[in-house]
Amino acid sequence: MASNLNAIRQRIAAACARANRAPESVVLLAVTKTQPPEVVSEAARLGLTHFGENKVQEAKAKIPLCPGRLRWQMIGHLQSNKCREAVELFEMIQSVDSLSLATELNRRAEQAAKRMPILLEVNAAGEASKFGYRPEQLLADLRHINELPRLEIHGLMTVPPWTADPEAVRPVFRQVRELKVQCEQLLGAPLAELSMGMTGDFVVAIEEGATIVRIGTGLFGARASAK
Fold this sequence. Notes:
The chain has about 230 residues and is of the alpha/beta class. The protein has one domain (about 1-220): TIM Barrel, CATH 3.20.20. It is built from 9 helices and 8 strands. The protein has an 8-stranded parallel sheet with strand order 7-6-5-4-3-2-1-8. Strand 5, helix 6 and strand 6 (about 150-160) form a beta-alpha-beta unit. Helix 4 (about 85-90) packs across helix 5 and helix 6 packs parallel to helix 7 (about 170-185). The longest helix is centred in the last third of the chain and has 18 residues, at about 170-185. The radius of gyration is 17 Å and the shape is globular. The model has no long low-confidence stretch (mean pLDDT about 95).
C-alpha cells in the first residue's frame, strides 16, 4: 500500500504540474468499499485522512472500528430511507442526484441540528445504468436545492463511462467542469469542489480540474470479491 500511495501521489503531482496547479489542490479520497477496518487503519498510518464509502450499512459497521480522526464521505447511490444514517455518519455526501433526495437530506439534517455539505452527482454521458443528474435537470433544480437551509452545495461529482483509454473520457470531465461554471453563474457564488476521476482516469480528471479523486483499486489492489 505504501508503494501504491507513493506512486499515486507522484502522478497527482505530475498532473498538477501540467495543469499549473498545486498538488495540495487535489484531495486523495481513499475508497474503502469491502476493505476491513485494519486496512483503513493502515492507510491512516500512511497519512491518509479522507475516506469514501459506497454503502451506508457497510460504513455504519466499519467507521466505529476505524481511527476517530478520519473524515468520511458518502460516494455511492443513496436511498431516501438511508438519509438519517448518512447524515450521522458522513461529513459530506457526494451523490445527491435529485431534488427529492436533497429535500429528505435537508429534513434529516434539520432533525440532527447539522449542516450537510453535498455534491450534486452528474450523469453527463446519460448512461442508463448510472445514477446522477442530467445537466439540464440539475440546472433546473439548482436554485431549489440551494434554498434548502441545512444543505451546502460545494460542487459537482461524476462517474464517467468506463473505458480502457482515459483520454476518451476527457470530454466528459471537461463538460462537468463547464457545468460547474454554469452553476456558479446561476448561484452567484463559487463552488469549490469537482469530484471526478478514479484509478484508471484520475490523471486526466486532474488536468481537467478535479479537486477530489476517488481511488480504491490503485491504492488497495483488487477487491477480495474480484480476485
